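Reviewers of the previous submission asked for a worked example of the structure-prediction workflow described in the proposal, so we include one complete record here. The input consisted solely of the amino acid sequence. No template or homolog information was supplied to the procedure at any stage.
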Amino acid sequence: MATAKQAPDIKVINFMRFRKPLAIMSGIMLVICLVSIVVRGLNLGLDFTGGTSVEIDFSLPVSQEQVQARLLQAGFHDTVVQHLGKASDILIRMPPQKNSDVTVGQEVLSALSFHGNPATLKSVDSVGSEVGNELYQQSVLAVLLALGLMALFVALRFKFNFAFGALMALSHDVIFTVGIFSLFHLPFDLTVLAAVLALIGYSLNEAIVEFDRIRENFRKLRKAEPIDVVNISLTETLRRTLKTITTVLLVVLALLILGGSALHWFAVAMLIGIFVGTYSSIYIATSYALTMGLSKEDFVVKKRLIEDRP
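From that input alone, the workflow returned the following structure tokens.
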């Protein structure tokens, strides 16, 4: 085997041995996610559906759980509670209310009358469903634009087959992550959208590191087969990939445990995304590029013969 002679210092892992069954599995999962997105839709948050936000300032710090429990007792359902800078400043977001903003503000203030901790109503704002729908459409366009620009970047830096593989991987990550939120009817708001956009960057970064090593090894290992070059490259970048995913995972777990309700679904989306993005960079981006045809002629720098002038 060519890889054994040209890469004796490492034990090469045959990643591409599983590419066909994993491609079938990914295809089935993507179909399930797409059907769920189309049929079930998304459990859109107040950012996309519109609603009312109320800002309350307490004299003493108060927990989000306490505020949530009081609002539920008062009949306010599906509320989102978060701190604004300090533990005594609370922002409450809720679905559209029938009463006027002034009435809603007073009802919330009355529900949050903690003994020994007086509260002040700072502001009440309402967002119509038209604005939320426009924001949702702009968010979809933002994701599509990000995918297109990322694919263009890879095409300019590498080859078209790499760009196609990267686009397939990024699309896979977005559809899979959004599909999980649709399947389990998890809240989808602007924080989750931010996580999806961050996931696109994370997944592309992983793919570019592997593409760089593949291009480098195609120039070094002239006699190796393309699939062997890919396996060697993925093996060489495996340690770096494991370090990256471990570091990001620690941060995401910290956000999930300590970030509170405001960052909870952002952390959930990132937790799903880092595993999906790492998987897709190997078995989607690289596998598709290999399937479309990689050869040493694509990467070997041809020397130009310069004729001496008299």
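Residues 226-258 form the longest helix (33 residues). We consider this example representative of the routine output the project will generate in years two and three.
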